[in-house]
Specification:
This protein has 165 residues and is mostly helical. Helix content is 50%, strand content 12%. The chain is built from three helices and three strands, in the order H-H-E-H-E-E. Strand 2 (133-139) and strand 3 form a beta hairpin.
């Protein structure tokens, strides 16, 4: 943002210098007594408004993209919470030590652990529930009550996909 402000200030100063040179060359004899704006003044204002709007649009799109990225991360966290709840209810499905299990998002939605997976890039559509999945691997000793489950979450949407999918 600081870069845009400096650039805007430089453009404004150069437009003002051009305007000053033109006014100096016109001299006082050519000056009008009528109220109004000259063509140079109007062009300077239009140029400044164009630059300001370009800066505003670029910053708004940047914030919108970061919001979509955060929505996608929230989808991944919701999926991890849903899979934890799933394994609390279905403890028989917990994989054996050293093995893995895969649960699709369709299963989590059908059984009520996950309500929906709205695509962050397209608000009206859903992420692909059949391709979105969680792969769980179990590590730790056989008698370990605090078993360690490692999650590899794969969320597939229209324009985004989790890392490692």
């Amino acid at each position: 943002m600081k870069y845009y402000r400096e650039m805007l200030l430089k453009v404004y100063i150069s437009i003002y210098k051009i305007y000053s040179i033109i006014e100096f060359r016109k001299g006082e004899s050519m000056r009008r007594d009528k109220n109004g704006f000259t063509l140079v003044e109007l062009l300077a204002v239009i140029t400044l408004l164009g630059i300001l709007s370009a800066v505003a649009v670029s910053s708004v799109t940047q914030y919108a993209e970061s919001a979509r990225k955060q929505d996608f991360e929230i989808l991944e966290k919701n999926m991890k919470t849903a899979i934890n709840n799933y394994f609390i209810d279905h403890s028989a499905n917990i994989p054996a030590i050293g093995s893995s299990a895969t649960v699709t998002a369709r299963t989590l939605v059908d059984e009520g652990y996950l309500t929906s997976m709205t695509d962050p890039d397209r608000n009206a559509s859903q992420c692909d529930l059949n391709r979105s999945k969680v792969v769980i691997t179990r590590s730790g000793a056989q008698a370990d009550f605090n078993m360690k489950l490692n999650y590899k979450i794969c969320v597939v949407c229209s324009k985004r996909c989790s890392k490692g999918c």
